[in-house]
Amino acid sequence: DLRGRTHSLSDYASEKGVTLFVFWKTCCPNNITMIDELKEVWQEYDNSEKPIKIVLVSVDDQRTASRVKPIVGSNGWVWDVVMDKNGDLARIYHITMPTQWVAVNSFGKIIYRSKVTNGTLDSAIYFDELITEMNKTN
Question: Please, are residues 68 and 93 in contact by the beta-carbon 8 Å criterion?
């Protein structure tokens, strides 16, 4: 995490609802914009009935990892942040290039995945798709 502590993937599991892993990188302004848009959409969502736990997964390497904390702080992102400097978590979920979203249920099963393309920054569309998938599985 941002404090240098190591966690198990299960530490981020949502007991009810889903965990949305958002893979991103600081060098891409589109990634920053997408997360800002996600913040707006998430704040409007009623998280009580079907909770969505968001975890930002920075895939920045050793050279650029120092940028993560200031960007997270200056943008007011309140979610957990995972530093995936070696790409271990990205490999588990077959992430080749950010920005990508992977949502898993409480059993760790992937229920939604999306490659958020550079030309499309509308997080609301992807968030609505996630809600639709959540409704199918519950």
Answer: no
